[in-house]
Amino acid sequence: MLELYEELVVDILLRLPVKSLLRFRCVSKFWRDLIDSKYFIDMHRQQSINSNTNFHMMFQISSNQLCSCSEYFDNDGLKRSLTKIDIPMSRQTIGSRTQCFCTEIIGCCNGLLCTQFLDFDYALWNPFTRRYNKLPQAPKLEFDLLKNSKPFEGFGYDHVHDVYKVLRIFQIFYPDDFNRKNSIIRNQICVYSLRLNSWKYIEDYPYGDHNYEFQYNHNRGCFVNGASHWLAYPLILNENGFRVQGLEWSIVAFNFEVEKFSTIPHPNANRNGKSFQIDNLGGFLCIFEEVCETCYVWVMKQYGVGESWIKLLSLDLHSFKLEYPIADPDRYVQPVAYYSKNGEKLLMKTNFNTLTWYNLKEATSNIIRFPIKMGSYNAYMCLESLVLPYNVDDKEIAAQIQ
Amino acid sequence: MSEVDMAVIKPEMMKSFIWLQTADGSIQQVEQEVAMFCPMICHEVIQKGMGSSKSYAISVPQRVNPASLSLILDYCRFHQVPGRSNKERKSFDEKFIRMDTKRLCELTSAADSLQLKPLVDLTSRALARIIEGRSPEEIREIFHLPDDLTEEEKLEPLKNTTDDPRIRLLNRLYAKKRKELKEKEKLKIVEVEEDRVDDRSVDDLLSFINGGEGGIIGCWFFCALLLNSCCSIFFLIV
Question: What is the CB neighbour count within 10 angstroms for residue A277?
Fold first, then answer.
């Protein structure tokens, strides 16, 4: 008589990938109820994070398609595991007509992606279970202000109250031309909570005595340690009321639990080089700069502690294998993920079609070429989880979801 | 005299043995360090003083059949040796779990009842790898599960509510655990102070031993008391 106690069954199921679990919902009533239960979903997510398994590299390759592949890939592994995923909210079929929207991924958290399409529409989506939830529309901005403003978004998780939240900031410039004329910034900030299923305005800004202008080319906040982060420059006005560009810069963080802004101490990096951005590198806050054809990667080993910034990598691009010559305007280098359980290798984006594994210890690199042609893309690590993109308690919403 | 008789006659000079009895009634003796590798057996020996002779053999839980017990003892015999490298242990583990699924399930059950967590982890991982690619029908066969969903229910995307009391219990326990963790965060400062209170009481007790009567016997008695309540304080004295 074969008897495997239920706790042991749970222990085994917790180690399986999402694809198998979705299939096993058909096994029996108990297995289905177990896999759908909040207990199992959260335990499975925790187990994946603790054992560093079930992570995938995700690339957005076009406005309505993603590409995913399992971690630790080499050239062969990439070919085998690369799968295309359609972004469901990028298409809308009304009658016989299908409309395509340009969709952007705002952020990734616990296996949920937050997407943005049109100006004020957002959705939460689990690309592995294929479930998605269109959120109520964010508060609008009048057209006059909208055309003079820059949007910044962040997607995060309040782990204390178990709520997913979306932050939206419009930095509004006066009077008209925000590229040349200097102007005073006003901010419209609102936060969406999945638990409350609504948006609300936030007044806590500017931070301290400075008003900050966020760096625009990286307007998706990077989520680390319960907060979204942006690079920002303190807004300094000269005697004529015009905004002045200085060398000063800061890291502005929005904590999703207390819903407040703060600044994080930053390393001694230079913002005026060819590249300057902030990222989540394997769970750590990371600053990447490229100055005088040398790349520096800084990592904050202990969150919030200024002294814990370390220079992980100092790479002279002249000695590095690049697809395009250094001076080529299309050439760029950017870190993507911080792989291998011993943290030895760094995955870098070195072009539109190539990634490079850089071995930090041995200073060697291994180029990976994409088997399919891709344009410019964003890449990030996404956890494969069963997390639902909507509030389970809300039965009305649950009934509408496919 | 045969060698077996010799071994029985001089027990004090040879290594000591623990006596175990399986559910089918058969009794066997196992080297002490091997058997003590199982937390459940360790507990029986220390807390209840069992296993020292045939008549006081430790009753092994029902889920442990003789075949599983033999496998578990092989596992313990290998891993209790302290000098082995991680590579050796890993290589042993990989060869060890090569058995059919039925045997693996029995072994998982048995290891769990003996509280041998590393072996439970190893066998669970192996079972997860085995069932990962299987179809629901094969899964039902392996675990002897009832096919109690209707065809409609199998196609349903999500079931939010559940009537199953086991799931409701799991959800409740989980909500409780989350709450406890939150409370723990808030009470961290208080806990540190409580530790300090413990230190003081140990100092007090130590001075009591040194100043009072009883000498070595008192010290040992005191140690036995402490072993029962808090292992870390025991190490302080030693």
Answer: 17
